[in-house]
Amino acid sequence: MLPVRPHAVESYRWLRPTDQRDIAPLWNLPPRPGVAAPALAATLRKELGSVSHVQRHSAAWIDAPFADETQVAVLADLMDEYCVFGTLQPVTGPDRSPLQQTTSLEAAARGGSPIGLRVRVPGEWEASAAEGVRSLMARADPGVRVDLLLDMGGVLADRPDAGKEALRALDALVPLAPWRSASVLSGGFPSVRGEMLDQGLFEAPRWDWAMWHEIVHSQRSYVRLLSYGDYGTQPVDAIAQVPQPDRKGGPDWGFLRYTTEQVFVLAKVMHSDDDKTAFNRAAARRIVGLSDFRGPTTSAGESWLRDCAQGDVNTGAFQKWLSVGNVQHLTYVAHTMRSR
Protein backbone atom coordinates (compact mmCIF):
# COMPACT_ATOMS: atom_id res chain seq x y z
CA MET A 1 0.00 0.00 0.00
CA LEU A 2 1.90 3.04 -1.26
CA PRO A 3 0.96 6.67 -1.87
CA VAL A 4 1.56 8.09 -5.33
CA ARG A 5 4.24 10.44 -4.06
CA PRO A 6 7.85 10.94 -5.23
CA HIS A 7 9.38 9.28 -2.14
CA ALA A 8 7.33 6.10 -2.60
CA VAL A 9 8.00 5.91 -6.34
CA GLU A 10 11.70 6.32 -5.58
CA SER A 11 11.52 3.51 -3.00
CA TYR A 12 10.07 1.10 -5.52
CA ARG A 13 12.62 2.16 -8.14
CA TRP A 14 15.44 1.44 -5.65
CA LEU A 15 14.33 -2.16 -5.16
CA ARG A 16 16.30 -4.89 -6.85
CA PRO A 17 14.45 -6.52 -9.78
CA THR A 18 14.03 -9.77 -7.84
CA ASP A 19 12.34 -7.88 -5.00
CA GLN A 20 10.19 -5.82 -7.38
CA ARG A 21 8.85 -9.07 -8.82
CA ASP A 22 7.83 -10.25 -5.34
CA ILE A 23 5.97 -7.05 -4.47
CA ALA A 24 2.64 -5.94 -5.98
CA PRO A 25 2.05 -2.31 -4.98
CA LEU A 26 -1.39 -0.88 -4.47
CA TRP A 27 -0.75 2.75 -5.45
CA ASN A 28 -3.05 5.33 -3.84
CA LEU A 29 -3.69 8.67 -5.53
CA PRO A 30 -4.05 11.46 -2.95
CA PRO A 31 -7.22 13.51 -2.55
CA ARG A 32 -7.24 16.84 -4.39
CA PRO A 33 -10.44 18.60 -3.32
CA GLY A 34 -11.44 21.76 -5.11
CA VAL A 35 -9.02 21.41 -8.03
CA ALA A 36 -10.62 22.23 -11.39
CA ALA A 37 -10.83 19.46 -13.96
CA PRO A 38 -8.18 20.76 -16.45
CA ALA A 39 -5.51 21.26 -13.77
CA LEU A 40 -6.49 17.99 -12.12
CA ALA A 41 -6.14 16.08 -15.38
CA ALA A 42 -2.61 17.42 -15.90
CA THR A 43 -1.62 16.51 -12.32
CA LEU A 44 -3.10 13.03 -12.46
CA ARG A 45 -1.48 12.34 -15.82
CA LYS A 46 1.89 13.24 -14.32
CA GLU A 47 1.32 11.07 -11.23
CA LEU A 48 -0.01 8.11 -13.20
CA GLY A 49 2.88 8.46 -15.63
CA SER A 50 5.46 8.23 -12.86
CA VAL A 51 3.86 5.06 -11.49
CA SER A 52 3.42 3.55 -14.94
CA HIS A 53 7.10 4.09 -15.64
CA VAL A 54 8.34 2.19 -12.59
CA GLN A 55 5.72 -0.52 -13.19
CA ARG A 56 6.44 -0.95 -16.89
CA HIS A 57 7.77 -4.49 -16.31
CA SER A 58 5.12 -5.67 -13.85
CA ALA A 59 1.49 -5.03 -13.00
CA ALA A 60 0.22 -3.09 -9.98
CA TRP A 61 -3.10 -1.81 -8.69
CA ILE A 62 -4.06 1.86 -8.85
CA ASP A 63 -6.72 3.38 -6.62
CA ALA A 64 -8.13 6.76 -5.63
CA PRO A 65 -9.92 5.90 -2.38
CA PHE A 66 -10.58 9.51 -1.38
CA ALA A 67 -11.57 10.92 -4.78
CA ASP A 68 -14.41 13.41 -5.02
CA GLU A 69 -16.80 13.51 -7.98
CA THR A 70 -14.49 15.69 -10.06
CA GLN A 71 -11.50 13.42 -9.53
CA VAL A 72 -13.54 10.29 -10.32
CA ALA A 73 -14.77 11.86 -13.59
CA VAL A 74 -11.27 12.91 -14.64
CA LEU A 75 -9.86 9.47 -13.80
CA ALA A 76 -12.58 7.88 -15.91
CA ASP A 77 -11.12 9.66 -18.95
CA LEU A 78 -7.62 8.35 -18.15
CA MET A 79 -8.47 4.72 -17.47
CA ASP A 80 -7.92 3.49 -21.02
CA GLU A 81 -4.48 5.06 -21.27
CA TYR A 82 -3.12 3.65 -18.01
CA CYS A 83 -5.24 0.56 -17.31
CA VAL A 84 -6.62 -0.75 -20.60
CA PHE A 85 -3.39 -0.17 -22.54
CA GLY A 86 -0.98 -0.01 -19.59
CA THR A 87 0.12 -2.21 -16.70
CA LEU A 88 -2.02 -0.61 -13.98
CA GLN A 89 -5.03 -2.53 -12.71
CA PRO A 90 -8.16 -0.68 -11.54
CA VAL A 91 -9.55 -0.94 -8.03
CA THR A 92 -13.09 -0.46 -6.83
CA GLY A 93 -15.10 -1.43 -3.77
CA PRO A 94 -18.60 -1.71 -2.34
CA ASP A 95 -18.29 1.72 -0.69
CA ARG A 96 -17.45 3.56 -3.95
CA SER A 97 -19.74 5.71 -6.06
CA PRO A 98 -21.69 4.09 -8.93
CA LEU A 99 -19.59 6.05 -11.47
CA GLN A 100 -16.32 4.86 -9.93
CA GLN A 101 -17.52 1.26 -9.81
CA THR A 102 -18.78 1.28 -13.40
CA THR A 103 -15.64 2.96 -14.74
CA SER A 104 -13.37 0.43 -13.04
CA LEU A 105 -15.42 -2.61 -14.05
CA GLU A 106 -15.60 -1.48 -17.67
CA ALA A 107 -11.88 -0.68 -17.85
CA ALA A 108 -11.02 -4.16 -16.58
CA ALA A 109 -13.37 -5.75 -19.11
CA ARG A 110 -11.98 -3.71 -22.03
CA GLY A 111 -8.38 -4.37 -21.12
CA GLY A 112 -8.80 -7.99 -20.10
CA SER A 113 -7.01 -7.19 -16.85
CA PRO A 114 -7.83 -8.20 -13.28
CA ILE A 115 -9.65 -5.78 -11.01
CA GLY A 116 -8.98 -5.23 -7.33
CA LEU A 117 -11.96 -5.30 -4.98
CA ARG A 118 -10.97 -3.31 -1.90
CA VAL A 119 -13.09 -4.07 1.15
CA ARG A 120 -12.31 -1.82 4.08
CA VAL A 121 -12.74 -2.99 7.67
CA PRO A 122 -11.53 -0.14 9.91
CA GLY A 123 -13.32 -1.56 12.96
CA GLU A 124 -15.64 -4.48 13.52
CA TRP A 125 -16.65 -6.59 10.53
CA GLU A 126 -20.26 -5.96 9.52
CA ALA A 127 -21.96 -8.91 7.89
CA SER A 128 -24.00 -6.57 5.66
CA ALA A 129 -20.78 -5.64 3.83
CA ALA A 130 -20.79 -9.05 2.16
CA GLU A 131 -24.03 -8.16 0.36
CA GLY A 132 -22.35 -5.07 -1.13
CA VAL A 133 -19.51 -7.25 -2.40
CA ARG A 134 -21.95 -9.81 -3.80
CA SER A 135 -23.89 -7.08 -5.61
CA LEU A 136 -20.73 -5.59 -7.10
CA MET A 137 -19.49 -8.98 -8.25
CA ALA A 138 -22.79 -9.56 -10.03
CA ARG A 139 -22.10 -6.49 -12.19
CA ALA A 140 -18.62 -7.63 -13.24
CA ASP A 141 -17.98 -9.15 -16.65
CA PRO A 142 -17.77 -12.94 -16.20
CA GLY A 143 -14.37 -12.94 -17.90
CA VAL A 144 -12.82 -10.43 -15.48
CA ARG A 145 -10.60 -11.93 -12.80
CA VAL A 146 -11.00 -10.35 -9.37
CA ASP A 147 -8.48 -9.80 -6.57
CA LEU A 148 -9.75 -9.51 -3.01
CA LEU A 149 -8.01 -6.68 -1.15
CA LEU A 150 -9.13 -6.88 2.46
CA ASP A 151 -8.01 -3.57 3.94
CA MET A 152 -8.04 -3.69 7.73
CA GLY A 153 -6.73 -0.12 8.02
CA GLY A 154 -4.71 0.84 11.08
CA VAL A 155 -3.88 -2.04 13.42
CA LEU A 156 -2.28 -0.75 16.59
CA ALA A 157 -2.55 -1.55 20.30
CA ASP A 158 -6.13 -0.23 20.40
CA ARG A 159 -7.34 -3.05 18.10
CA PRO A 160 -6.50 -6.28 19.97
CA ASP A 161 -9.29 -8.13 18.11
CA ALA A 162 -8.18 -7.14 14.62
CA GLY A 163 -7.11 -10.70 13.79
CA LYS A 164 -10.52 -12.06 14.76
CA GLU A 165 -12.27 -9.36 12.73
CA ALA A 166 -10.09 -10.18 9.71
CA LEU A 167 -10.99 -13.85 9.99
CA ARG A 168 -14.68 -13.02 10.26
CA ALA A 169 -14.40 -10.93 7.11
CA LEU A 170 -12.47 -13.62 5.23
CA ASP A 171 -14.92 -16.33 6.33
CA ALA A 172 -17.69 -14.29 4.71
CA LEU A 173 -15.85 -13.01 1.63
CA VAL A 174 -13.72 -15.92 0.41
CA PRO A 175 -16.73 -18.10 -0.55
CA LEU A 176 -18.29 -15.31 -2.66
CA ALA A 177 -16.06 -15.65 -5.73
CA PRO A 178 -13.24 -17.61 -7.37
CA TRP A 179 -10.73 -14.93 -6.40
CA ARG A 180 -7.59 -14.72 -8.53
CA SER A 181 -5.75 -13.66 -5.37
CA ALA A 182 -6.59 -12.55 -1.85
CA SER A 183 -4.53 -10.16 0.27
CA VAL A 184 -4.87 -8.89 3.82
CA LEU A 185 -3.66 -5.30 4.18
CA SER A 186 -3.08 -3.38 7.39
CA GLY A 187 -0.91 -0.65 8.83
CA GLY A 188 0.99 -0.90 12.08
CA PHE A 189 3.29 2.10 11.81
CA PRO A 190 2.56 4.62 14.61
CA SER A 191 1.83 8.33 14.43
CA VAL A 192 5.05 9.82 15.76
CA ARG A 193 5.40 12.71 18.21
CA GLY A 194 8.66 14.46 18.91
CA GLU A 195 8.78 13.51 22.58
CA MET A 196 8.68 9.82 21.64
CA LEU A 197 12.17 10.15 20.19
CA ASP A 198 13.88 12.25 22.83
CA GLN A 199 15.54 9.31 24.60
CA GLY A 200 17.37 7.95 21.55
CA LEU A 201 15.96 4.97 19.68
CA PHE A 202 12.23 4.34 19.97
CA GLU A 203 10.65 0.94 19.31
CA ALA A 204 7.03 0.50 18.23
CA PRO A 205 5.54 -3.02 18.15
CA ARG A 206 4.45 -4.31 14.75
CA TRP A 207 0.83 -4.97 15.68
CA ASP A 208 -0.12 -5.54 12.04
CA TRP A 209 2.49 -8.30 11.76
CA ALA A 210 1.08 -9.92 14.89
CA MET A 211 -2.40 -9.83 13.32
CA TRP A 212 -1.06 -11.55 10.21
CA HIS A 213 0.42 -14.35 12.31
CA GLU A 214 -2.92 -14.82 14.06
CA ILE A 215 -4.57 -15.27 10.65
CA VAL A 216 -1.88 -17.66 9.41
CA HIS A 217 -2.12 -19.80 12.54
CA SER A 218 -5.93 -20.01 12.40
CA GLN A 219 -5.80 -23.22 10.33
CA ARG A 220 -8.46 -21.91 7.95
CA SER A 221 -8.40 -23.78 4.64
CA TYR A 222 -8.01 -20.55 2.66
CA VAL A 223 -4.85 -19.38 4.46
CA ARG A 224 -2.63 -20.83 1.73
CA LEU A 225 -4.33 -18.48 -0.76
CA LEU A 226 -3.60 -15.32 1.24
CA SER A 227 -0.88 -12.76 0.68
CA TYR A 228 0.44 -10.31 3.27
CA GLY A 229 0.19 -6.57 2.71
CA ASP A 230 0.94 -3.43 4.72
CA TYR A 231 1.24 0.35 4.53
CA GLY A 232 5.03 0.46 4.71
CA THR A 233 6.68 2.82 7.16
CA GLN A 234 4.03 5.52 7.35
CA PRO A 235 0.82 5.69 9.36
CA VAL A 236 -2.34 4.58 7.56
CA ASP A 237 -3.71 8.12 7.27
CA ALA A 238 -0.65 9.29 5.30
CA ILE A 239 -2.30 8.22 2.03
CA ALA A 240 -5.22 10.57 2.79
CA GLN A 241 -3.07 13.70 3.11
CA VAL A 242 -3.79 16.45 0.59
CA PRO A 243 -0.57 17.48 -1.22
CA GLN A 244 0.60 20.99 -0.37
CA PRO A 245 3.41 21.74 -2.84
CA ASP A 246 3.49 25.45 -1.95
CA ARG A 247 3.59 24.93 1.80
CA LYS A 248 6.32 26.82 3.61
CA GLY A 249 7.96 25.73 6.82
CA GLY A 250 7.29 22.51 8.65
CA PRO A 251 8.85 20.61 11.55
CA ASP A 252 12.55 21.02 12.19
CA TRP A 253 12.91 17.29 12.87
CA GLY A 254 12.15 13.94 11.26
CA PHE A 255 13.18 10.36 11.89
CA LEU A 256 14.94 7.39 10.37
CA ARG A 257 13.00 4.12 10.25
CA TYR A 258 14.13 0.51 10.49
CA THR A 259 12.09 -2.70 10.51
CA THR A 260 12.88 -5.81 12.53
CA GLU A 261 10.88 -8.99 13.10
CA GLN A 262 8.93 -7.56 16.03
CA VAL A 263 9.30 -3.75 16.02
CA PHE A 264 9.75 -0.59 14.02
CA VAL A 265 12.87 1.23 15.23
CA LEU A 266 12.87 5.04 14.98
CA ALA A 267 15.73 7.50 15.45
CA LYS A 268 15.26 11.26 15.50
CA VAL A 269 17.08 13.40 12.93
CA MET A 270 17.12 17.14 12.44
CA HIS A 271 16.01 19.06 9.37
CA SER A 272 17.15 22.50 10.47
CA ASP A 273 19.74 22.82 13.21
CA ASP A 274 23.32 24.08 13.40
CA ASP A 275 24.52 20.63 14.50
CA LYS A 276 22.19 18.58 12.32
CA THR A 277 24.93 16.81 10.35
CA ALA A 278 26.64 15.39 13.43
CA PHE A 279 23.27 14.69 15.08
CA ASN A 280 21.93 12.83 12.04
CA ARG A 281 25.06 10.76 11.54
CA ALA A 282 24.89 9.70 15.17
CA ALA A 283 21.27 8.63 14.64
CA ALA A 284 22.29 6.54 11.61
CA ARG A 285 25.10 4.94 13.65
CA ARG A 286 22.60 3.88 16.32
CA ILE A 287 20.54 2.04 13.70
CA VAL A 288 23.56 0.52 11.97
CA GLY A 289 24.73 -0.66 15.39
CA LEU A 290 21.54 -2.64 16.06
CA SER A 291 22.01 -6.37 16.47
CA ASP A 292 19.14 -6.73 13.95
CA PHE A 293 20.78 -4.51 11.31
CA ARG A 294 20.93 -6.64 8.19
CA GLY A 295 24.05 -5.17 6.58
CA PRO A 296 24.72 -2.66 3.80
CA THR A 297 24.37 -5.20 0.97
CA THR A 298 20.75 -6.04 1.86
CA SER A 299 19.12 -3.11 0.10
CA ALA A 300 19.68 0.48 -0.99
CA GLY A 301 18.14 1.48 2.37
CA GLU A 302 20.76 -0.30 4.48
CA SER A 303 23.49 0.92 2.16
CA TRP A 304 22.42 4.55 2.60
CA LEU A 305 22.18 4.19 6.39
CA ARG A 306 25.73 2.79 6.50
CA ASP A 307 27.03 5.58 4.25
CA CYS A 308 25.23 8.24 6.30
CA ALA A 309 26.69 6.84 9.51
CA GLN A 310 30.20 6.88 8.03
CA GLY A 311 29.91 10.36 6.54
CA ASP A 312 29.98 9.21 2.91
CA VAL A 313 26.68 10.83 1.85
CA ASN A 314 24.64 13.90 2.71
CA THR A 315 22.40 13.27 5.72
CA GLY A 316 19.27 13.91 3.65
CA ALA A 317 15.87 15.45 4.29
CA PHE A 318 12.26 14.31 4.60
CA GLN A 319 11.89 12.68 1.17
CA LYS A 320 15.16 10.80 1.49
CA TRP A 321 14.32 9.57 4.99
CA LEU A 322 10.94 8.32 3.77
CA SER A 323 12.46 6.57 0.74
CA VAL A 324 15.18 4.90 2.81
CA GLY A 325 12.64 3.72 5.38
CA ASN A 326 10.33 2.22 2.80
CA VAL A 327 12.97 0.51 0.67
CA GLN A 328 14.52 -1.31 3.63
CA HIS A 329 11.03 -2.29 4.84
CA LEU A 330 9.80 -3.52 1.46
CA THR A 331 12.98 -5.52 0.93
CA TYR A 332 12.79 -7.07 4.39
CA VAL A 333 9.13 -8.08 3.98
CA ALA A 334 9.81 -9.54 0.53
CA HIS A 335 12.71 -11.61 1.86
CA THR A 336 10.73 -12.70 4.92
CA MET A 337 7.74 -13.89 2.91
CA ARG A 338 9.96 -15.56 0.33
CA SER A 339 11.64 -17.68 2.99
CA ARG A 340 8.42 -18.98 4.55
Written description of the protein model:
Helix content is about 40%, strand content about 20%. The chain contains eleven helices and eleven strands. The chain has helices spanning about 5-15, 15-20, 35-55, 70-85, 100-110, 130-140, 160-175, 205-215, 275-290, 300-310, 320-340; strands spanning about 1-5, 25-30, 60-65, 90, 115-120, 145-155, 180-185, 200-205, 225-230, 255-260, 265-270. The strands form two sheets. An eight-stranded parallel beta sheet has the order 1-2-3-4-5-6-7-9. The protein has a three-stranded antiparallel beta sheet with strand order 8-11-10. The longest helix is centred in the C-terminal third of the chain and has 21 residues, at about 320-340. The protein is globular and about 60 Å long. The model has no long low-confidence stretch (mean pLDDT about 95).
